[in-house]
Amino acid sequence: MSMNSAGGGQRVTPPDQRSTGASMAGAERGLVGVMGVFLLTAGVRSGSAVQKLVFSGLGAGLTALALSGRSPVATALKIRQNADGETLVSDAVTIGKGADELYAIWRRFENLPSLMKHLERVEVLDERRSRWTVKAPAGYSGGEVSWEAEMTADEPGRRIAWQSLPDAQIENSGEVQFRAAPGNRGTEVLVRLKYRPPGGTTGVVVARVLGQEPSQQLRDDLMRFKREQELGGYHPTTEGQSSGRASKGGQA
Amino acid sequence: MKAIVWQGTNHVGVETVPDPTLLLPTDAIVRITSTAICGSDLHLLDGYIPSMEKGDILGHEFMGEVVEVGSAVKKVRVGERVIMPFNLACGVCDPCQRGLFSACDNSNPNHRMAEALYGATSASGLFGYSHLFGGYAGGQAQFVRVPFADVSCFAIESDLRDDQVLFLTDIFPTGYMAAENCAIVPGRDVVAVFGAGPVGQFAVRSAQMLGAAEVIVIDRVPERLRLAEAAGARTINYDETDVLVALHEATGGRGPDHVIDAVGLEAHGHGPGALLDTAEQKMRLSFDRITALRWAILSCAKGGTVSMPGVYGGLVDKMPLGAAFNKGLTFKMGQTHTHRYVRPLLQRIQQGEIDPSFVITHRAALSKGPELYKTFREKHDGCIKVVLDPWA
Ligand SMILES: [Zn+2]
Ligand SMILES: [Zn+2]
Are residues B311 and B219 in the same domain? Predict the structure, then answer.
């Protein structure tokens, strides 16, 4: 049975997000191949069974991917690109609150930095335009990147979409959808972002590994948003708990 | 306060560490009166569980008295005697609402680490069980900070001793859920339990409480087998006999209707820690340590259930899936949804249906903890279950 056969069905993947992997340049491919062979060797030689499993598995995987020419790191990290070379980032989370309520929080753009940690600030300029400022990815000079965005859709309780204005430092667009989850489970929040990274695929990979790439930030932000809403602001933490680390010399 | 601290692979020690404090208004602080060593603690000792850090306080089976509560705690009161499930649950997310407490969306602050390892999912937080599961300080200590206090703390008002209610925090519900997952038809179904460690022992008694016609236990440690026999189970020592042949014959060629794997990958289960370690040494297996699961699948009767309370962590291959498919087996598994079971099982204890203290073989002061970790791991001295007193 196909997705479209049921009444009122909808395509789950829009046409421009069909790509699921990024291809590698020659040098990247060689490096990955070397890493694969190295890990395979290390795995086979390792004395520890766990290391043997992990290294051999990783090594075999990398080697195979190098031969195929797909970027394994990008694929593993779920970095996707479309035919225009834009990077696609998306994520979704189900939150136990109503769509109208969540939409209303999101729609107050100036409040978003308190929910989304990588956002420095959002200034609302007029009905449709706003200025967004984010912390820059590693290696990007200036510490901040900002752009003006225009709202391209605003459907209360359902969807907000935006697009950066022509002279943006990072050309980007995005949308957030709110959809009632089946049963009494609250709202599915789906965020899709599209942007042209300053350093190409490898730049994105490097930034992602350092934890400063939008996809990772998006995941963290969505989980933070969910916990903010569901736990009444008390995010789980272990910061400041007791441990043996603070008691050096305290051996009993 | 005094606490048992992970100091590195094969090193645990008793250290003096700062007393815990309330970190969130939803926390409570509990003064611990009894704390146990669980089979799964041994894998922390062995260094099998990634993301342990030097100085982490161990322990996830403990109970005590509430000494402080945060401003947002509504139900729990200072002075109350309480037990806490080993897994942490927020109580409000969708999995929690459905009673799937060990799958809580919100209790693991290190969800990203867990998602990276297991895919787009995150396990709940656990007390004293590595940073993959939140890095929460454990309860082999004199005091513990209890997050989500209103959901975590279960008051014990009766005069039952600590020994009788302590295991409601982990091994009793774990063994019970394993048996419940089998959907036993009373008076008809035969249940085989692989691994007669603490969880296996509770699985045996739970299967009996749920009406199993017969329970067969497989292990190699004589004390463990004797304890299962004392409950009325038939036993198979796999060191002395071929397990599959023995089970085949013991069930008239049908196989056990349901099989509980209380062992897990690399013997990472809650409970019979060394069963599988020993088996793989014996069988010269390298990393494909699913002996118990393989036996479970191969022995199980047509249309039966393979119930897995034993912990599995990663990738498994050479699993006899063809046998499972052709027999039409059902697989049920997962971390225990402990919160769900505390009250009903407490009731069974109060009604005298079971006294969980039967499993305790060793009691000592917390300061003797490091030695007892070794005794438990080596199964010296008939050791099946250890309870420590933090104030002795
Ligand atoms: Zn345990
Ligand atoms: Zn929850």
Answer: yes
